[in-house]
Amino acid sequence: MDERRVFKKKLDDIALELRELELLYERYFSGEEKREPLKQRTEIERKLRALATRRIIKTDHRFLFDSLSSRYHTYATQWNRIQRLIDEGKYHRHTERRPAKTAADPAKALPSDDLYENLLRAHQSCALKTPPPGRSQFDAYLEKQKAQILEKYGKQNVEFRIVIENGKPKLRAKAK
Question: Which NCBIfam families match (predicted)?
Fold first, then answer.
């Protein structure tokens, strides 16, 4: 019975270390950490390999081990893919934080994400038979409108909003 508790403790320790490794990789990919946590990763790999060679009789322990091993290998594949993208220069770290929305200040322009969500809601409320435009199509249209307004009125702050006219959602611009 004592061996059973020792083995369960090893599995729990590995699960905890794997969770810590996940957090370290999140920090590394976000740019908070400068170096990849390879030391911790190789340590977990070593422990998992050592347990893989062992014959596990208890079904609950086998299940826990298989779950941990599977979870680790899934994360390892993801981490390798992201690291490859970083090496190729195709990965952009998402370090910018969006400011919190305040209901008290409606004069601020909505970010593109909020505009698109408002467009989708307006499209649903109008119950149109045609599908809403795709995100890339909407962003391209928004950039085109910004360029036209900039050309026509010069450097002026513009606020975009979604309105419903004649049963259809429309994008409206208002100069500030």
Answer: MXAN_5187_C_dom
